[in-house]
Amino acid sequence: MSGETEAVNAKMEDLKVGETSQASEQNNAAEDGDKEDVVDPWTVATSSSKGIDYDKLIVRFGSTKIDDALLERFEKITGHKPHHFLRRGIFFSQRDLHLILTRYEAKKPFFLYTGSRGPSSTSMHVGHLIPFIFTKWLQDVFDVPLVIQLTDDEKFLWKDLKAEEANKLAYENAKDIIALGFDVNKTFIFSDMNYIASCPEFYRNMLKVQKCVTYNQVKGIFGFGDSDCIGKISFPAVQASPSFSNSFPAIFGTKKDIPCLIPCAIDQDPYFRMTRDVAPRLGYPKPALIHSTFFPALQGAQTKMSASDPNSSIFLTDTPKQIKTKINKYAFSGGGTSVEEHREKGGNCDVDIAYQYLTFFLEDDDRLAEFKEEYSSGRMLTGEIKKELITILQKMVAEIQERRKTVTSDLLKEFMTPRKLNCQS
Ligand code: TRP
To answer: What stretch(es) of the chain map to CATH 3.40.50.620?
Structure first.
């Protein structure tokens, strides 16, 4: 029995005693005197000021930690130094990444699959960028086809939003994504609402997944309840289907044996545990995964970023002035309460949001190490570390805004048209 099947069944056991899986996990944790983090596609919550305990999450989800040996193998096979997201443990967990590297080594084809439901506002925030920045890098390293799913259907089902609005937002988000620099010759971006209606092969795969998974199982995996609409209950099949190469006949023809690698935040793992469980039964390879940690809100790792709270993050539409004000005003500080105290005791990088954001956006390892040393020792002040971050984010956001202006409707249309992609493998 596969690990995934065991995980699914374990959750089903919980349901038999009439509890939701989450509630029972919390009860067990309460007995341990230590509250479990809640991580699923809709909720990320922790009571610890240090944020989510990712090592515990790996054990609970049954994935594998990315260790030095894997990074060494990655570098040896691809000839690329691992991205700073990998070096710093931001992408920290995986499933079957070794198999993908083995295929790359043997020059056998595979593809990349990622996605986004996008924000409720028309703009994405910098946290949304993390999986995309990483996926773009993987595309450059591997030179393989990439498919990006925009789940306007998911958004319609979960939010108070008209179908037409959700669809329109998908196109706005696509422009932000394109502005990160994806190669149009290697990338297909699709809105579920549009693509599913035009591609019988995709819909057929959805049906196959739907036939394989029972209501009890999705309840166990996702915690759906009796009053959730049936659209939500069948949605996991939509997110599963792009994992299968024959869902994209324009790219892969009728080939059904090309596996994919999915970069995503770890909260998306439940979808792909389910996918990996059904894949062999449908005669398809299991998708491989590479998981990231969560991007913290300005207010601290304990709080959740929310697209509806403009002060909880930096948005791609923010002006340089807004970026400066938000970071100075809202970024949670691990520094001392007074300059004297800070000089004496130093800052706490583990909780300091300016430092945390620098680990995401400052590529230079030496400078980052220097800031850590200077800030922890109290020689560098909170205002000074914030200033470094402000400069980096202002530059990054301005560059994306500039590139977004060059995304014409023709270019958008090309990215979103099913077509043959042009890659080495
Ligand atoms: N459900 C994801 C979200 O809410 C969107 C998504 C669809 C996705 N397919 C994916 C994310 C594949 C990562 C990988 O944003």
So the answer is: 4-298
pLDDT in tens, 43-86: 888 877 677 899 999 999 999 999 999 999 999 999 999 999 99
Q: What pTM does this model have?
A: 0.91
Contacts of 252 (CB under 8 A, 6+ apart): 111, 145, 245, 246, 258
**151 φ, ψ (degrees, to nearest 5):** -90, 70
Q: Distance between CA atoms of 412 and 100, rounded to whole angstroms?
A: 30
The CATH superfamily label for domain 4-298 reads HUPs (3.40.50.620)
**Residue range 320-405, CATH number:** 1.10.240.10
Does ligand 1 come within 6 angstroms of the Cβ of 264? yes
Tens digits of per-residue pLDDT, 11-35? 333 332 222 333 334 334 434 446 7
Q: What one-letter code names the amino acid at 211? A: K
Q: Which value, in Å, is the radius of gyration of the alpha carbons in the chain?
A: 22
Distance from Cα 329 to the centre of ligand 1, integer Å = 31
Centroid of ligand 1 to alpha carbon of 270 (angstroms): 11
